[in-house]
Design brief:
This protein has 171 residues and is an alpha/beta fold. The protein has helices at residues 6-16, 36-43, 63-68, 109-120, 142-158, and strands at residues 21-26, 50-56, 73-79, 89-92, 123-129. 32% of the residues lie in helices and 18% in strands.
Length: 171
């Protein structure tokens, strides 16, 4: 999928989502837009049918928790350099991540996805949000914050819960 508005990425997600869903929020909440995945996770806490794992910038430490949830689908929400405008959203097969800029994580998402697939036999997708700035000590930009809210609101509405505000705070 190419980077697009959150609604388009969500439509594709709705087609592929089934059974138990685990969403892992990934990123550094103290590096501006790199915290987008953390904010998605925070916004989805308590949504029926979605187990939320707030992994921050060390997602491999939560591998056991993700697998133990026995998911059918795992969403890895993260800021990914898509080569698009800040705030663009894409739903990606982790195998396509090799085409994007190198990761800032200790373990690349592509490898993490492979480990999850092998251990849980789950469908693994990356919910990618294009960052605008990743300056240490800065908050999430307004553009990325709008995209995070849109993604969270779309998922919440589909799961029977209304919109809920997200804040630019650490996981």
């Amino acid at each position: 999928m190419t980077a697009a508005a959150p609604e388009r990425a969500y439509a594709e997600l709705a087609e592929r989502r089934r059974g138990r869903v685990v969403l892992a929020g990934i990123g550094n909440p103290f590096r501006g837009d790199d915290g987008a995945g953390c904010l998605v996770a925070r916004g989805l806490r308590g949504v029926p049918g979605i187990a939320v794992v707030e992994s921050e910038d060390v997602p491999e430490r939560d591998l056991f928790r993700i697998v133990a949830a026995r998911p059918d689908v795992v969403l890895l929400a993260d800021a990914v350099h898509l080569g698009a405008a800040p705030g663009a959203v894409a739903l990606l097969d982790p195998e396509r991540l090799a085409h994007y800029a190198p990761t800032t994580h200790r373990v690349p998402l592509r490898l993490l996805a492979s480990l999850i697939r092998g251990a849980a036999s789950a469908d693994v997708l990356v919910l990618a949000i294009q960052p605008g700035q990743t300056v240490s000590g800065s908050g999430v930009s307004p553009t990325v914050a709008r995209s995070v809210r849109a993604v969270v609101d779309l998922i919440r509405r589909s799961r029977g819960r209304g919109p809920r505000a997200t804040q630019a705070a650490p996981c």
